[in-house]
Amino acid sequence: RHGISEYATYDTHFKLLFANGNSEIYKYIPNATLEPKNKDKIIYNDSLVNYLENFWTGYNYADFDEGYKADFVLNAKICKIYDMYYKKTNDSRFKERRDYLLKWLAYKEMNDGAYVEGIPPDKGILTTVRVIEPIINMNFENKNKALSYIKKEVSGIDYNITTNKEKDVVKVASLIPYLYELNLINDSQLNDYINYVLEKQRQDGKWG
Fold first, then answer.
1. DSSP code for 135
2. How would residue 63 be classed by pLDDT, with cut points 50, 70 and 90?
């Protein structure tokens, strides 16, 4: 539907260099350094696995609708699921797919550690924490770069809340459980975030 810009999101022959929600720039890599060993679907006698494999593109898992085809959050979750399947079954196919997805997520990460979503894509802290959360305890080579990006963005949010310049209450509310679980905010910051969200609530109980 979106031509090469749709295919480039997940194919390892393309590396995203720039995205701002309005436009995107990719670098074409003729000899990609990352290719899955096996592009075939995993055939396994399990309803969840069989369902998930319907979305395998040969490079990643993508929902075949109008959404962003790289869908890093979805792939991080599937990585976690297949890690659990490998530990339960000792089937090497799950380990192979898990390890490949970890490499693919590192490969597709932007240079500053951020992940993107949307069409056209835009990077953001919420997308990035949702990617990192399922794989934080796995052998993910670019974890520290992503965490550095998140911490930098958190500093900006802290400043905006303190100076009453923060405008995105939905973003802040959505971030709270992820940042707390990943130990990326302390108790004082947590209270500031919660108080900010509560202060923005209207008299009718709604936000916005």
1. H
2. confident
Q: What are φ and ψ of residue 61, in 5° steps?
A: -105, 130
Q: Give the residues across from 57 on adjacent strands.
A: none
Cβ–Cβ < 8 Å for 94, 101: no
Helix (H, G, I), strand (E, B) or coil at 201: coil
d(CA 56, CA 41): 7
Give the model's pLDDT for residue 3.
Answer: 61
Which residues make beta-bridge pairs with 28?
Answer: 14
Q: For residue range 6-28, list pLDDT tens digits in order.
A: 778 999 999 999 999 998 999 99
Q: How far apart are CA 193 and CA 81, in angstroms?
A: 31
Residue 178 has pLDDT above 80, yes or no: yes
DSSP line for 187-201? HHHHHHHHHHHHHT-
183 conformational bin, left if phi > 0, alpha if psi -120 to 50, beta if neither: left
Threshold 0.90, pTM exceeds: yes
**CA–CA gap between residue 149 and residue 114 (Å, rounded):** 6
